[in-house]
């Protein structure tokens, strides 16, 4: 009998939260990269800050909630919640100082060389100061509300992510000190142009005064009759992770709206302050916000660098990446003339790769043509996130108004898009669409569309399954793939899937799909183990996976076992990865890399060598517990040879040894290697993807 496999070591997993911080550190490395255009570096500084905000609002908030309930469950890497929070605090403080340093000491001087300056009130000349005093009086002062804190005025509610001034004032008659809070309004530009509107400035100069500086310079007008002693900036992050109690007897929409109303009152999980803050003021904030001193993040320089995106929006193309226009997939047009998507798909599948292939002239056009086509009987679609002026939603409304059957599953539990999705759902309902809000206990995350068309007395079904949202704006900056197909098996599968989503069907098996929560985990585990068997039998074996995150312990253990059996495993993981690659006796045959660049690598594609008959799968699921167990996700088997060749080329490029990427080592360290820009190469080759 063969020897039983050795038990896997207890320390085989990396920490999820620290791995996420490593990902955001890679974003920060791009901000530090002197080879990038200057405003692109500013953009990455902003993205880093926004990412960190969401990390605290969701992940750290979740850990703190579990800690407050007394749960002592250890993470898969063996750390207690207390230990995780301590390590996150230490790592975050390091990253915040590095973030501030690259902005203050490197980017700001370079911006000044380009005529872009952020100044303080004391730097202004008299003419500029006079003009900004008028601006304050007319545009800012009316929306400010100074809130006193004393026995008659309790400490005010501080909204999440708002910028605030803690102001110390004194009564000149009694000498009694007072404390007040002034919120920096978020409906006024954070960076105020110093020059008068229409002024012609030399060398394309752009000078900005932070809004908080303008307010601070006029505090005496907010507290007349009092002496303003000092002021300090602070910012609070609150728990924004909704916990909707889903009850089959309660309207899900009403339950979610109730929770949304409570989100703004979530407990504080982080307090950001300037390094110069008065210790007594800090003590007041810590006490009143009921926050631990360990949750205070001291920031050198400006708070809330997420607002730097306003500088990125400046009209300075020479300081940005060269603009590009997404190409129409060559099979979807003849020269400048659009082709019928339906006629094209009858000839074979089309794999679209965004943003290199235009979303507007492929997926969006598919829905728009379906809405306008008198032979189309029905359109069924899932919507997880879309844009504020969504042409997809407009087309669905047009289709319903034209008398077509339109079914839309709007996932109203999509984090931070809940309110927008509720609004879309109601607009769709008013237009006559059949709107479904998802399944109790599950988020519907799959990206699927089904068009039913009558052709010469015969029903034919056309489909789209992708890795990205039906959002034309993010489709220009997110890297995603999708299949447009008229394959009858896929059409039958999506028909069954929509019947499950809208009715009481309990279908769990499909022809060309793996569907979570029932079959993606089991299907992938079986295929990983099949590769191990093939390796043992001397047959071609190999696994290549590209996803945003790899966290699921069962999948990771199966990959370790495949590696031990001799299967080469190549992983492209943009974000979180808790697998340890290259560890002797555990994962010698596994290598992991991350690509972070101009576009957000967002596609999920899996390839199995399968003894010489390769299998390709694409879909919406990352390899995380939530995707495999608590969401409706879809993986589609890609059968079209041209589409397979296109995915093969993308994988070969992403995994080329000289491509610019970060390599993960077994000790959790990431090393940047290579100088070949895979995204730039794909941009150069866009349009040459017809196979």
From TrEMBL:
<keyword id="KW-0067">ATP-binding</keyword>
<dbReference type="Pfam" id="PF02503">
    <property type="entry name" value="PP_kinase"/>
</dbReference>
<dbReference type="InterPro" id="IPR003414">
    <property type="entry name" value="PP_kinase"/>
</dbReference>
<dbReference type="InterPro" id="IPR041108">
    <property type="entry name" value="PP_kinase_C_1"/>
</dbReference>
<feature type="domain" description="Polyphosphate kinase middle">
    <location>
        <begin position="131"/>
        <end position="311"/>
    </location>
</feature>
<keyword id="KW-0479">Metal-binding</keyword>
<feature type="binding site">
    <location>
        <position position="385"/>
    </location>
    <ligand>
        <name>Mg(2+)</name>
    </ligand>
</feature>
<feature type="domain" description="Polyphosphate kinase N-terminal">
    <location>
        <begin position="13"/>
        <end position="119"/>
    </location>
</feature>
<feature type="domain" description="Polyphosphate kinase C-terminal">
    <location>
        <begin position="513"/>
        <end position="678"/>
    </location>
</feature>
<keyword id="KW-0597">Phosphoprotein</keyword>
<comment type="similarity">
    <text>Belongs to the polyphosphate kinase 1 (PPK1) family.</text>
</comment>
<dbReference type="InterPro" id="IPR036830">
    <property type="entry name" value="PP_kinase_middle_dom_sf"/>
</dbReference>
<keyword id="KW-0808">Transferase</keyword>
<feature type="binding site">
    <location>
        <position position="574"/>
    </location>
    <ligand>
        <name>ATP</name>
    </ligand>
</feature>
<feature type="binding site">
    <location>
        <position position="51"/>
    </location>
    <ligand>
        <name>ATP</name>
    </ligand>
</feature>
<keyword id="KW-0460">Magnesium</keyword>
<dbReference type="InterPro" id="IPR025200">
    <property type="entry name" value="PPK_C_dom2"/>
</dbReference>
<dbReference type="InterPro" id="IPR025198">
    <property type="entry name" value="PPK_N_dom"/>
</dbReference>
<feature type="active site" description="Phosphohistidine intermediate">
    <location>
        <position position="445"/>
    </location>
</feature>
<dbReference type="GO" id="GO:0008976">
    <property type="term" value="F:polyphosphate kinase activity"/>
</dbReference>
<dbReference type="Pfam" id="PF13089">
    <property type="entry name" value="PP_kinase_N"/>
</dbReference>
<keyword id="KW-0547">Nucleotide-binding</keyword>
<dbReference type="GO" id="GO:0046872">
    <property type="term" value="F:metal ion binding"/>
</dbReference>
<dbReference type="GO" id="GO:0009358">
    <property type="term" value="C:polyphosphate kinase complex"/>
</dbReference>
<feature type="domain" description="Polyphosphate kinase C-terminal">
    <location>
        <begin position="340"/>
        <end position="506"/>
    </location>
</feature>
<dbReference type="Pfam" id="PF13090">
    <property type="entry name" value="PP_kinase_C"/>
</dbReference>
<keyword id="KW-0418">Kinase</keyword>
<dbReference type="GO" id="GO:0005524">
    <property type="term" value="F:ATP binding"/>
</dbReference>
<dbReference type="Pfam" id="PF17941">
    <property type="entry name" value="PP_kinase_C_1"/>
</dbReference>
<feature type="binding site">
    <location>
        <position position="602"/>
    </location>
    <ligand>
        <name>ATP</name>
    </ligand>
</feature>
<comment type="function">
    <text>Catalyzes the reversible transfer of the terminal phosphate of ATP to form a long-chain polyphosphate (polyP).</text>
</comment>
<feature type="binding site">
    <location>
        <position position="478"/>
    </location>
    <ligand>
        <name>ATP</name>
    </ligand>
</feature>
<feature type="binding site">
    <location>
        <position position="415"/>
    </location>
    <ligand>
        <name>Mg(2+)</name>
    </ligand>
</feature>
<protein>
    <recommendedName>
        <fullName>Polyphosphate kinase</fullName>
        <ecNumber>2.7.4.1</ecNumber>
    </recommendedName>
</protein>
<dbReference type="InterPro" id="IPR024953">
    <property type="entry name" value="PP_kinase_middle"/>
</dbReference>
<dbReference type="GO" id="GO:0006799">
    <property type="term" value="P:polyphosphate biosynthetic process"/>
</dbReference>
<dbReference type="InterPro" id="IPR036832">
    <property type="entry name" value="PPK_N_dom_sf"/>
</dbReference>
